[in-house]
From TrEMBL, chain A:
Keywords associated with the record: Chromatin regulator, Nucleus, Transcription, Transcription regulation
Biased composition (Low complexity): 23-34
Molecular function (Gene Ontology), one example: transcription corepressor activity
Source organism of the structure: Asterophora parasitica
Main location: nucleus
Domain Myb-like intervals: 131-184
Region (Disordered): 15-41, 425-496
Keyword hit for Nucleus: yes
Protein name: SWR1-complex protein 4
From TrEMBL, chain B:
Protein name: Protein AF-9 homolog
GO BP annotations listed: chromatin organization; DNA repair; regulation of DNA-templated transcription
CDD domains attached to this UniProt entry: YEATS_Yaf9_like
Self-association state and partner proteins as the record states: Component of the SWR1 chromatin-remodeling complex and of the NuA4 histone acetyltransferase complex.
Keywords, comma-separated and alphabetical: Activator, Chromatin regulator, Coiled coil, Cytoplasm, DNA damage, DNA repair, Nucleus, Transcription, Transcription regulation
Highest classification ranks of the organism: Eukaryota, Fungi, Dikarya, Basidiomycota, Agaricomycotina
Cross-referenced PANTHER family: YEATS DOMAIN (PTHR23195)
Species annotation: Asterophora parasitica
Free-text domain note: The coiled-coil domain is required for assembly into the NuA4 complex.
Occurrences of domain YEATS (ranges): 7-174
Function recorded in the entry: Component of the SWR1 complex which mediates the ATP-dependent exchange of histone H2A for an H2A variant leading to transcriptional regulation of selected genes by chromatin remodeling. Component of the NuA4 histone acetyltransferase complex which is involved in transcriptional activation of selected genes principally by acetylation of nucleosomal histones H4 and H2A. The NuA4 complex is also involved in DNA repair. Yaf9 may also be required for viability in conditions in which the structural integrity of the spindle is compromised.
């Protein structure tokens, strides 16, 4: 470059270095100056120096940093045996791992083996909630077993679904049945969490078959359009847009005209934009972008909102605070009940409204709750929340009692069948019945003895029936006498 | 005004109250002074607001309830002279002496503006100390004197549905003293929560909002236990049903 150091100095009005300065001082100079910013050539920088405002945009294409591959230090790898806890069998495989990983570290991919949670239901639940005239119990059982086998992957399930003696089912039929059963089970079983999580779970099992079928039909018809039809549709769409625009302009002009001439509004109705059409426009555009690939099997969008909207009168925070301070609870007045004097709910004490279990199961519920240290006939603090809480507790207990009753019945049936089988076999072979009884006894032991505490919750009956097996097969008499005594016992505590 | 006699629909308003009694065993000297020396206790049965007020020796009673309660009638045992005691002004309580426990009818009549009928509650007069077992037990009199007063109180809420406008105004003009959030005094003992026996000892109890929370927790815990139990029994049931089915098949397969 032609510019010498002296030129630069004169331009930037830097005093010339004293001639006496040795070469060592000369060398120091670049270090005292600020570094040259990137993006300016060295020559230009030496001309303008750091004091001049840089007019050039300092944009040097920034390259990605070289990835640090850790090439510096050596990594030791080892071939180790490992077990996958996700597997049912204890198959042992070997893989390469860094020597630094812990010896007993869990297989990192095991967590991806998430078993699908397929519901099971009892015969009793089936008869109470799940009856459907289109489906038999056997076929429903089969559907659930296939769903379990294939992890509720519907295409596979549908592919493998082959119920002998059944009508052919579409994938939507299968889904519809499966999800409706799940929904009914969630709804009818007592829920461990709160109401919103229950509603969410139910919502996650929503499946609207009709909607799904319509959706698929629509997609098929969309896909089956000929190029001419598509062209026609687009032409029509453009035509509509044009008409709309024309009309809008016409209206505007007319409005203006009337305002200038007569000073009034034209009174022409506003042109309502057709939502459907504009949506369609976006839709078609999108589809073009996506290359008309549509996932026909994405799960149906739930038709219902996740949580049912709670209709509440608008309530400000101030109101809520006022209500809380004054112990006011607002409910929407029921519109169905006629407003008469007789319909008025008189003043009462909160504890009057304690929930009462059904008379038939009351002794058992009382006994079960007593074991947990709860008396359902009285509360320390009968507030609104606590009464609701007690209500859900009673509900859960009722269904527990119900399940236990059915278990007892099934166990009784099993015993009857076993003796019948034993008797038949004894007709064939001498000396078999004793053996059959032994089997029966052992089995009974493991039913009842599974969990001492659980057994003691409400079941005085199975304890009794254990003795019963030894004596005879008439269980029912014990059962009734048992309830009779407990009922007499609870009569005393009628007072709330 | 006519507009006052309009019911405010969709509103229910409640007032927390407590009812119950406090009983103190009498010393021999005090008993001698009584007209009937066989009486062993002096007791007070009362209806009060739930939150405790300035009086440290009294359970509840922070608010004066006479703005919505016109009269409280305590119907004592027939052996008392004039067993039906009407109390028309606060404090709504009756103090008597006696030797036995019995049920007291408490009839709460509301002010005429409410347009509501009276409500009746029962309270079992409690003279002898609470026991862990719940079985009544009569301790010797000197032990009872040493142990101090016995408290038996029930919390409750009086609920008014769709109150008349003027009654609602009366109620909202008398704000409620809410239960304290922290425990400062012993817990009032209640048979539904036998576990509170130890916490109930040592002085005049006080109702707190912690008690509500504690009870809600107990109920929730019980519910969880029931649900766990239920899950377990459901699996048992499903197993048994499967077994039954197998047996049925087996039975069908074996020749008659």
């Amino acid at each position: 470059m032609a510019a010498s150091a002296a030129d630069v100095r004169s331009i930037l009005s830097i005093p010339a270095p004293s001639l006496a300065a040795g070469p060592s001082q000369q060398k120091k100079q670049p270090t005292t100056q600020t570094r040259k910013p990137e993006g300016i050539s060295r020559e230009l920088y030496s001309l303008i120096g750091p004091s001049a405002p840089s007019l050039v945009t300092l944009s040097k294409p920034r390259l990605k940093q070289k990835p640090n591959l850790g090439g510096g230090s050596k990594v030791k790898w080892e071939c180790r045996a490992f077990k996958n806890p996700g597997r049912q069998d204890s198959l042992e495989l070997r893989h390469w791992v860094r020597a630094s990983t812990a010896e007993d570290a869990e297989y990192p991919f095991a967590k991806y083996n998430v078993p699908s949670n397929v519901f099971t239901y009892s015969q009793d639940e089936y008869t109470r909630f799940l009856e459907d005239k289109e489906w038999t119990k056997e076929e429903t059982d089969y559907l659930f077993s296939v769903a379990r086998d294939y992890d509720v992957r519907w295409f596979v399930v549908h592919d493998r679904y082959n119920y002998i003696g059944g009508v052919p089912r579409s994938i939507d039929d299968l889904k519809d049945r499966y999800y409706s059963v799940c929904r009914k089970l969630v709804r009818n079983r007592p829920w461990a969490g709160d109401e919103t999580s229950k509603a969410q779970t139910i919502a996650s099992y929503l499946f609207d078959k009709e909607r799904e079928i319509t959706r698929k039909k629509y997609i098929v018809s969309l896909e089956n359009r000929t190029p001419e039809q598509i062209a026609e549709e687009e032409a029509l769409f453009i035509e509509v847009k044009r008409l709309e625009q024309n009309e809008r302009r016409f209206k505007k002009e007319r409005d203006e005209l009337l305002r200038t001439i007569a000073g009034i509004e034209s009174g022409l109705p506003d042109i309502v934009e057709d939502e459907g059409l504009s949506n369609l426009a976006i839709d078609t555009k999108k589809k073009k972008n996506r290359g008309s690939v549509m996932d026909a099997d994405s799960p149906a969008i739930p038709a219902m909102p996740v949580s049912a909207p709670i209709v509440k009168r608008p309530q400000t925070a101030k109101n809520a605070a006022f209500d809380a301070a004054n112990c006011i609870v607002r409910t929407d007045p029921p519109t169905t009940v006629p407003v008469t004097k007789a319909a008025h709910q008189p003043a009462h004490l909160r504890s009057y409204k304690l929930p009462v279990p059904k008379a038939a199961v009351q002794p058992k519920i009382t006994a079960a709750l007593a074991e947990l240290g709860i008396s359902h006939s009285r509360l320390v603090m009968p507030t609104r929340d606590n009464i609701m809480q007690l209500e859900s507790l009673l509900e859960a207990t009722t269904s527990l009692v119900e399940i236990k009753r059915v278990v007892d019945k099934v166990e009784y049936d099993i015993r009857v069948l076993k003796t019948r089988l034993g008797m038949r076999e004894s007709q064939g072979v001498e000396g078999r019945p004793g053996e059959a009884m032994d089997v029966d006894e052992g089995h009974e032991g493991d039913v009842v003895g599974e969990d001492g505490r659980a057994q003691s919750v409400l079941s005085t009956r199975s304890a009794r029936s254990r003795k019963q097996t030894r004596r005879s097969m008439s269980i029912s008499s014990v059962d009734t006498s048992g309830t009779a005594t407990t009922r007499a016992g609870t009569k005393r505590q009628k007072r709330s | 005004m006519a507009s006052d006699r309009v019911r405010v629909r969709g509103v229910s308003i409640f007032r927390p109250i407590i009812y119950g009694n406090t009983a103190t065993a009498l010393t021999q000297k005090e008993r001698d002074a009584l007209p009937s020396p066989d009486h062993t206790h002096r007791w007070t049965v009362a209806v009060r607001s739930a939150a405790s007020g300035g009086n440290a020796d009294q359970v509840g009673g922070a608010d004066d309830l006479s703005y919505f309660i016109k009269r409280v009638t305590f119907k004592l045992h027939d052996t008392y002279p004039n067993p039906s005691r009407n109390v028309d002004k606060p404090p709504f309580e009756v103090t008597e002496t006696g030797w036995g426990e019995f049920d007291i009818h408490i009839r709460i009549t509301f002010v005429p503006e409410s347009g509501e009928k009276a409500v009746v509650v029962y309270h079992h007069l409690k003279l002898h100390a609470w026991t862990a077992s719940g079985e009544p037990e009569i301790p010797p009199i000197d032990v009872a004197i040493k142990a101090g007063p016995v408290h038996s109180w029930q919390y409750d809420e009086i609920v008014f549905h769709d109150p008349y406008q003027n009654f609602l105004n009366i109620l909202t003009n008398h704000p409620v003293t809410h239960l304290p959030k922290a425990k400062r005094k012993p817990v009032p003992f209640h048979l539904a929560n036998p576990g509170s026996l130890d916490a109930s000892k040592g002085g005049v109890p006080e109702f707190t909002s912690l008690m509500e929370k504690e009870e809600a927790d107990r109920l929730e815990e019980a519910r969880q236990a029931i649900i766990v139990e239920q899950e377990r029994w459901r699996t048992v049931l499903i197993e048994r049903e499967r077994e039954l089915e197998n047996l049925q098949k087996q039975l069908a397969a074996t020749p008659q």
